[in-house]
Amino acid sequence: MTQASEQPSSFVDNEIDLRELFVAIWAGKWFIILITVIFAVGGVAYALSKPNIFQASALLAPTEGSGGVRLGGQLGGLASLAGVNIGQDGTSNTVIAKEVLQSRAFLSDFIGRHGLAVQLFGTKGWNVRESHWNYNREVYNPDATEWRTSEEGNSFEPTDWDLVEKFRVEHLSVSENKDNGMVTLSVRSQSPVAAQQWAEWLIRDINEHMRDEDVEEAEASIQYLETKLNETNIAGMQQVFYQLIESETRTVMLANAQREYVFKTIDPAVVPQEKSAPKRALIAVLATMLGGILGVFVVLIRAFIRNGKQDDIPQLSASNGKAG
User: Fold this and answer.
1) Peptide bond between residue 62 and the one before it cis (omega within 30 degrees of 0)
2) Where exactly are the transmembrane stretches of this chain (predicted)?
């Protein structure tokens, strides 16, 4: 009998609690609507204040045989004995190139070579109608082509650290498909023209950078091998050195003959016609939902606090009656 009597009472309590919940929400409906409208308007205003961002992407494939000729077997072992590491198995040129592409040294040199500092820090946005940058004249003076200074006398010219961080975080994205090894390079900018141009420059520069490094390394190896060749009179070692020099010479020739040395462009970057961000409709919807949830939460908290205070009043009056 006790359990049977407790179950209906619990159901009644739950029903009453649920009914009180809806009553509290209905009583605070105007407050909820007000908060929701405020958040909706704020979300729309924020979404409209954000500039359009365009993204240009290029699909790249690792070139076959990049990184020179591989030596294996006896010749590779003899090269190690001679003190030269030529074409040994290790990290591929593609993996190295992908990391170099996002490295601070490469990006700093890339930004300086193409003069991107002003576009990164000295502009307010892109003029779509006239297809040119709108300069931030409080920071950069385009007439005198110089950076302005603050009231304290500090120049607004960004440091290499600032340039690389901004470019790497806000503009550059490199991803690799683990299934087929394809690499996607994406560049974001307020200017669709700049996004496409920067992507092309990055691909060209990383290919040239990796080629120059391999050619320089191969030429240094050739010079070292020729020195060792002149120092030995053993016919067998001379033959080994000749083969190693031939291999390194072939590496230099192949590197200079390949225009796309590490990455071959499968799908080149084009000037985007549609923005990739911001998602203004999504921002407005999320802001509206957040406002509604916050409004309901505040109303329920207020109702909970108010009911708690009302429950304390009878207890206080009962205790006062007993004392009397």
Assistant:
1) no
2) 21-48, 281-305
